[in-house]
Amino acid sequence: MKAFSYERASSPADAAARAAQIANARYIAGGTNLLDLMKLQIEAPSHLIDVNGIGLDRIEETAEGGLRIGALVRNTDLAADPRVRRDYPVLTRALVAGASGQLRNKATTAGNLLQRTRCVYFYDPNMPCNKRVPGSGCSALAEGAVSRQLAVIGTSDACIATHPSDMAVAMLVLDAVVETVLPSGETRVIPVADLHVLPGDTPHIETTLRPGELVTAVTLPPPIGGKQSYRKVRDRASYAFALVSVAAIIQPDGSGRIALGGVAPKPWRRDDADAALPKGATAVMERLLAGARPTEDNAFKLLLAERALAATLAEAKE
Protein backbone atom coordinates (compact mmCIF):
# COMPACT_ATOMS: atom_id res chain seq x y z
CA MET A 1 0.00 0.00 0.00
CA LYS A 2 1.39 3.42 -0.95
CA ALA A 3 1.52 6.34 1.49
CA PHE A 4 -1.44 8.70 1.61
CA SER A 5 -2.71 11.59 3.70
CA TYR A 6 -6.01 11.57 5.58
CA GLU A 7 -8.63 13.94 6.93
CA ARG A 8 -12.16 13.83 8.33
CA ALA A 9 -14.77 15.89 6.53
CA SER A 10 -17.13 18.07 8.56
CA SER A 11 -20.09 18.09 6.15
CA PRO A 12 -21.08 16.70 2.73
CA ALA A 13 -20.36 20.05 1.05
CA ASP A 14 -16.98 20.26 2.79
CA ALA A 15 -16.09 16.76 1.63
CA ALA A 16 -16.98 17.51 -1.98
CA ALA A 17 -15.08 20.81 -1.93
CA ARG A 18 -11.97 19.15 -0.52
CA ALA A 19 -12.14 16.37 -3.13
CA ALA A 20 -11.98 19.00 -5.84
CA GLN A 21 -8.99 20.73 -4.25
CA ILE A 22 -6.73 17.66 -3.90
CA ALA A 23 -5.56 15.65 -6.89
CA ASN A 24 -6.30 11.93 -6.75
CA ALA A 25 -8.35 12.14 -3.54
CA ARG A 26 -10.86 9.43 -2.65
CA TYR A 27 -13.74 9.22 -0.20
CA ILE A 28 -13.67 6.48 2.41
CA ALA A 29 -16.58 5.24 4.55
CA GLY A 30 -16.85 1.50 5.22
CA GLY A 31 -13.74 0.84 3.15
CA THR A 32 -14.72 -2.76 2.40
CA ASN A 33 -13.78 -2.42 -1.28
CA LEU A 34 -11.41 0.56 -1.42
CA LEU A 35 -8.91 -0.80 1.11
CA ASP A 36 -8.63 -4.11 -0.74
CA LEU A 37 -7.93 -2.20 -3.95
CA MET A 38 -5.33 -0.03 -2.19
CA LYS A 39 -3.51 -3.08 -0.82
CA LEU A 40 -3.15 -4.36 -4.39
CA GLN A 41 -2.24 -0.86 -5.63
CA ILE A 42 -5.13 -0.97 -8.07
CA GLU A 43 -6.23 2.19 -6.30
CA ALA A 44 -3.44 4.47 -5.06
CA PRO A 45 -5.07 7.67 -3.76
CA SER A 46 -2.86 10.48 -2.54
CA HIS A 47 -5.44 11.53 0.03
CA LEU A 48 -8.42 9.95 1.81
CA ILE A 49 -11.43 12.01 2.88
CA ASP A 50 -13.26 10.20 5.67
CA VAL A 51 -16.97 10.88 5.28
CA ASN A 52 -18.08 8.99 8.36
CA GLY A 53 -19.68 11.29 10.90
CA ILE A 54 -21.16 13.85 8.48
CA GLY A 55 -24.78 13.07 9.26
CA LEU A 56 -25.68 10.74 6.39
CA ASP A 57 -26.55 7.70 8.49
CA ARG A 58 -30.32 8.02 8.89
CA ILE A 59 -33.36 6.49 7.18
CA GLU A 60 -36.20 9.00 6.96
CA GLU A 61 -39.72 8.95 5.52
CA THR A 62 -40.27 11.34 2.63
CA ALA A 63 -43.25 13.64 2.18
CA GLU A 64 -44.29 11.53 -0.81
CA GLY A 65 -44.50 8.34 1.28
CA GLY A 66 -41.15 6.83 0.34
CA LEU A 67 -37.88 6.48 2.23
CA ARG A 68 -34.72 8.55 2.08
CA ILE A 69 -31.70 6.41 2.94
CA GLY A 70 -28.55 8.23 3.98
CA ALA A 71 -25.45 7.32 1.99
CA LEU A 72 -23.71 6.06 5.13
CA VAL A 73 -26.47 3.76 6.37
CA ARG A 74 -24.83 0.40 6.92
CA ASN A 75 -26.16 -2.55 4.89
CA THR A 76 -27.08 -4.43 8.08
CA ASP A 77 -29.14 -1.53 9.41
CA LEU A 78 -30.87 -0.99 6.07
CA ALA A 79 -31.80 -4.67 5.72
CA ALA A 80 -33.21 -4.75 9.26
CA ASP A 81 -35.21 -1.51 9.10
CA PRO A 82 -38.88 -2.47 9.71
CA ARG A 83 -40.13 -0.08 7.03
CA VAL A 84 -37.79 -1.64 4.45
CA ARG A 85 -38.72 -5.16 5.53
CA ARG A 86 -42.45 -4.34 5.26
CA ASP A 87 -42.63 -2.16 2.14
CA TYR A 88 -39.48 -3.02 0.14
CA PRO A 89 -38.73 -6.69 0.94
CA VAL A 90 -36.85 -7.13 -2.34
CA LEU A 91 -34.24 -4.72 -0.95
CA THR A 92 -33.89 -6.54 2.37
CA ARG A 93 -33.52 -9.88 0.58
CA ALA A 94 -30.88 -8.53 -1.80
CA LEU A 95 -28.89 -7.03 1.06
CA VAL A 96 -28.96 -10.21 3.11
CA ALA A 97 -27.87 -12.19 0.04
CA GLY A 98 -24.75 -10.04 -0.30
CA ALA A 99 -21.41 -10.54 1.45
CA SER A 100 -21.02 -11.78 5.04
CA GLY A 101 -22.54 -10.39 8.22
CA GLN A 102 -19.23 -8.78 9.16
CA LEU A 103 -18.97 -7.01 5.80
CA ARG A 104 -22.60 -5.86 5.91
CA ASN A 105 -21.91 -4.28 9.30
CA LYS A 106 -19.32 -2.01 7.66
CA ALA A 107 -20.54 -1.61 4.06
CA THR A 108 -22.54 1.54 3.30
CA THR A 109 -25.40 2.28 0.92
CA ALA A 110 -23.32 4.54 -1.34
CA GLY A 111 -20.28 2.30 -1.21
CA ASN A 112 -22.34 -0.71 -2.20
CA LEU A 113 -23.68 1.12 -5.26
CA LEU A 114 -20.19 2.25 -6.26
CA GLN A 115 -18.20 -0.92 -5.58
CA ARG A 116 -16.01 -2.07 -8.41
CA THR A 117 -16.04 -5.29 -10.40
CA ARG A 118 -14.66 -8.55 -8.99
CA CYS A 119 -13.29 -9.68 -12.38
CA VAL A 120 -10.18 -11.71 -11.54
CA TYR A 121 -8.19 -9.97 -14.25
CA PHE A 122 -9.03 -6.55 -12.82
CA TYR A 123 -7.62 -7.73 -9.48
CA ASP A 124 -4.41 -9.12 -11.01
CA PRO A 125 -1.96 -6.25 -11.65
CA ASN A 126 0.16 -8.59 -13.77
CA MET A 127 -2.59 -9.04 -16.36
CA PRO A 128 -3.80 -6.49 -18.94
CA CYS A 129 -7.09 -4.85 -18.01
CA ASN A 130 -8.67 -1.89 -19.80
CA LYS A 131 -10.67 -1.00 -16.69
CA ARG A 132 -7.52 -0.78 -14.57
CA VAL A 133 -5.11 0.53 -17.24
CA PRO A 134 -7.00 2.02 -20.21
CA GLY A 135 -5.73 0.72 -23.53
CA SER A 136 -3.85 -2.24 -22.08
CA GLY A 137 -6.32 -4.88 -23.32
CA CYS A 138 -8.90 -7.23 -21.81
CA SER A 139 -7.44 -10.47 -20.47
CA ALA A 140 -10.93 -11.92 -20.05
CA LEU A 141 -11.31 -11.97 -23.83
CA ALA A 142 -7.99 -13.68 -24.50
CA GLU A 143 -7.89 -17.29 -25.70
CA GLY A 144 -8.18 -19.67 -22.77
CA ALA A 145 -9.35 -16.97 -20.36
CA VAL A 146 -11.70 -17.83 -17.50
CA SER A 147 -14.91 -15.86 -18.00
CA ARG A 148 -17.45 -17.99 -16.11
CA GLN A 149 -18.39 -15.14 -13.75
CA LEU A 150 -18.38 -12.38 -16.35
CA ALA A 151 -20.99 -10.54 -18.37
CA VAL A 152 -23.08 -11.82 -21.27
CA ILE A 153 -24.79 -8.57 -22.27
CA GLY A 154 -23.92 -4.86 -22.31
CA THR A 155 -20.29 -5.75 -22.93
CA SER A 156 -17.81 -4.35 -25.44
CA ASP A 157 -14.60 -5.51 -27.10
CA ALA A 158 -12.78 -3.62 -24.32
CA CYS A 159 -14.44 -5.16 -21.25
CA ILE A 160 -16.82 -7.93 -20.15
CA ALA A 161 -16.71 -7.34 -16.39
CA THR A 162 -19.88 -7.53 -14.30
CA HIS A 163 -21.16 -5.14 -11.65
CA PRO A 164 -21.05 -7.04 -8.34
CA SER A 165 -23.72 -5.34 -6.21
CA ASP A 166 -26.86 -7.22 -5.11
CA MET A 167 -28.32 -4.12 -3.49
CA ALA A 168 -28.07 -2.11 -6.73
CA VAL A 169 -30.22 -4.66 -8.57
CA ALA A 170 -32.99 -4.23 -5.99
CA MET A 171 -32.60 -0.44 -6.09
CA LEU A 172 -33.03 -0.57 -9.87
CA VAL A 173 -36.23 -2.60 -9.78
CA LEU A 174 -37.59 -0.17 -7.15
CA ASP A 175 -36.83 2.88 -9.36
CA ALA A 176 -34.64 4.42 -6.67
CA VAL A 177 -33.00 7.82 -7.13
CA VAL A 178 -29.51 8.87 -6.00
CA GLU A 179 -28.93 12.29 -4.42
CA THR A 180 -25.52 13.96 -4.65
CA VAL A 181 -23.60 17.11 -3.84
CA LEU A 182 -21.03 18.63 -6.21
CA PRO A 183 -17.83 20.48 -5.24
CA SER A 184 -19.62 23.72 -6.17
CA GLY A 185 -22.19 22.99 -3.45
CA GLU A 186 -24.94 22.30 -5.98
CA THR A 187 -27.01 19.17 -5.59
CA ARG A 188 -28.57 16.91 -8.17
CA VAL A 189 -30.58 13.69 -8.43
CA ILE A 190 -29.74 10.72 -10.64
CA PRO A 191 -32.06 7.74 -11.23
CA VAL A 192 -30.22 4.55 -10.31
CA ALA A 193 -30.96 3.41 -13.86
CA ASP A 194 -28.72 6.24 -15.10
CA LEU A 195 -25.96 5.96 -12.49
CA HIS A 196 -23.90 3.13 -13.99
CA VAL A 197 -22.64 3.21 -17.58
CA LEU A 198 -21.72 0.48 -20.06
CA PRO A 199 -18.02 -0.01 -20.84
CA GLY A 200 -17.88 0.87 -24.54
CA ASP A 201 -14.34 2.07 -25.31
CA THR A 202 -13.91 3.57 -21.83
CA PRO A 203 -14.49 0.80 -19.27
CA HIS A 204 -12.53 2.72 -16.63
CA ILE A 205 -15.48 5.18 -16.52
CA GLU A 206 -18.14 3.32 -14.54
CA THR A 207 -20.70 5.94 -13.45
CA THR A 208 -22.16 9.29 -14.45
CA LEU A 209 -20.80 10.93 -11.29
CA ARG A 210 -18.65 14.00 -11.95
CA PRO A 211 -15.20 14.56 -10.39
CA GLY A 212 -15.56 15.11 -6.66
CA GLU A 213 -19.32 14.47 -6.66
CA LEU A 214 -20.42 12.81 -3.41
CA VAL A 215 -23.46 10.55 -3.05
CA THR A 216 -25.49 11.76 -0.06
CA ALA A 217 -28.62 9.60 -0.12
CA VAL A 218 -30.78 7.17 -2.06
CA THR A 219 -34.52 7.81 -2.19
CA LEU A 220 -37.09 5.07 -2.64
CA PRO A 221 -40.48 6.03 -4.13
CA PRO A 222 -43.68 5.13 -2.27
CA PRO A 223 -44.25 1.37 -1.95
CA ILE A 224 -45.92 -0.31 -4.93
CA GLY A 225 -46.83 -3.56 -3.20
CA GLY A 226 -46.83 -6.84 -5.12
CA LYS A 227 -44.90 -9.95 -4.27
CA GLN A 228 -41.25 -9.02 -4.04
CA SER A 229 -38.33 -11.42 -4.18
CA TYR A 230 -34.60 -11.60 -4.82
CA ARG A 231 -33.28 -14.91 -6.11
CA LYS A 232 -29.51 -15.29 -6.29
CA VAL A 233 -27.70 -18.19 -7.95
CA ARG A 234 -24.06 -18.57 -6.91
CA ASP A 235 -21.33 -21.17 -6.72
CA ARG A 236 -21.47 -21.66 -2.96
CA ALA A 237 -24.12 -21.20 -0.30
CA SER A 238 -22.07 -19.21 2.26
CA TYR A 239 -21.35 -16.02 0.39
CA ALA A 240 -20.27 -15.36 -3.16
CA PHE A 241 -21.01 -12.98 -6.00
CA ALA A 242 -23.96 -13.84 -8.23
CA LEU A 243 -23.70 -15.95 -11.33
CA VAL A 244 -27.22 -14.69 -11.97
CA SER A 245 -29.65 -12.85 -9.73
CA VAL A 246 -33.28 -11.85 -10.27
CA ALA A 247 -35.01 -8.99 -8.47
CA ALA A 248 -38.75 -9.17 -9.04
CA ILE A 249 -41.92 -7.30 -8.11
CA ILE A 250 -44.97 -9.21 -9.33
CA GLN A 251 -48.48 -7.78 -9.07
CA PRO A 252 -51.63 -9.94 -8.69
CA ASP A 253 -52.55 -9.44 -12.38
CA GLY A 254 -49.18 -10.84 -13.52
CA SER A 255 -47.63 -7.51 -14.44
CA GLY A 256 -44.52 -6.27 -12.68
CA ARG A 257 -40.85 -5.45 -12.90
CA ILE A 258 -37.70 -7.55 -13.35
CA ALA A 259 -34.02 -6.67 -12.99
CA LEU A 260 -31.02 -8.97 -13.35
CA GLY A 261 -27.64 -9.03 -11.65
CA GLY A 262 -24.51 -10.96 -12.54
CA VAL A 263 -25.09 -10.73 -16.30
CA ALA A 264 -23.93 -7.23 -17.29
CA PRO A 265 -21.54 -4.39 -16.39
CA LYS A 266 -24.46 -2.71 -14.61
CA PRO A 267 -27.71 -3.86 -13.00
CA TRP A 268 -29.83 -4.88 -15.99
CA ARG A 269 -33.44 -4.00 -16.78
CA ARG A 270 -35.56 -3.23 -19.85
CA ASP A 271 -39.07 -1.80 -19.88
CA ASP A 272 -40.12 -3.95 -22.86
CA ALA A 273 -39.11 -7.05 -20.91
CA ASP A 274 -41.30 -5.97 -18.00
CA ALA A 275 -44.19 -5.65 -20.45
CA ALA A 276 -43.74 -9.29 -21.45
CA LEU A 277 -44.12 -10.62 -17.88
CA PRO A 278 -47.69 -11.95 -18.37
CA LYS A 279 -46.32 -14.16 -21.19
CA GLY A 280 -43.82 -15.90 -18.93
CA ALA A 281 -40.09 -16.24 -18.31
CA THR A 282 -39.07 -17.18 -21.85
CA ALA A 283 -40.77 -14.12 -23.35
CA VAL A 284 -39.17 -11.87 -20.75
CA MET A 285 -35.68 -13.20 -21.34
CA GLU A 286 -36.05 -12.94 -25.13
CA ARG A 287 -36.32 -9.20 -24.60
CA LEU A 288 -34.15 -8.77 -21.53
CA LEU A 289 -31.15 -10.60 -22.98
CA ALA A 290 -31.66 -9.72 -26.67
CA GLY A 291 -28.27 -9.09 -28.27
CA ALA A 292 -26.33 -11.03 -25.62
CA ARG A 293 -22.76 -11.96 -26.53
CA PRO A 294 -21.74 -14.70 -24.09
CA THR A 295 -18.41 -16.48 -24.16
CA GLU A 296 -18.22 -20.26 -24.39
CA ASP A 297 -17.44 -20.20 -20.66
CA ASN A 298 -20.53 -18.28 -19.53
CA ALA A 299 -23.20 -19.03 -22.14
CA PHE A 300 -24.93 -21.11 -19.46
CA LYS A 301 -26.06 -17.84 -17.85
CA LEU A 302 -28.73 -17.31 -20.53
CA LEU A 303 -30.62 -20.46 -19.58
CA LEU A 304 -29.80 -20.03 -15.90
CA ALA A 305 -31.38 -16.57 -15.89
CA GLU A 306 -34.53 -17.86 -17.57
CA ARG A 307 -34.88 -20.71 -15.10
CA ALA A 308 -34.25 -18.43 -12.15
CA LEU A 309 -36.99 -16.13 -13.38
CA ALA A 310 -39.35 -19.05 -14.02
CA ALA A 311 -38.86 -20.20 -10.44
CA THR A 312 -39.47 -16.65 -9.21
CA LEU A 313 -42.72 -16.36 -11.18
CA ALA A 314 -43.92 -19.74 -9.94
CA GLU A 315 -43.20 -18.69 -6.37
CA ALA A 316 -45.16 -15.46 -6.90
CA LYS A 317 -48.29 -17.49 -7.75
CA GLU A 318 -48.22 -19.46 -4.50
Automatic annotation (TrEMBL):
The keyword rRNA processing does not apply. Transmembrane segments: none annotated. It comes from the Bacteria. The keyword Transcription does not apply. Keywords: FAD, Flavoprotein. SUPFAM superfamilies: CO dehydrogenase flavoprotein C-terminal domain-like, FAD-binding/transporter-associated domain-like. Residues 1-225 form the FAD-binding PCMH-type domain. InterPro entries: CO_DH_flav_C, CO_DH_flav_C_dom_sf, Diverse_Substr_Oxidored, FAD-bd_PCMH, FAD-bd_PCMH-like_sf, FAD-bd_PCMH_sub1, FAD-bd_PCMH_sub2, Mopterin_DH_FAD-bd. GO terms for molecular function: FAD binding; oxidoreductase activity. This is Xanthine dehydrogenase family protein subunit M. It comes from Paracoccus suum.
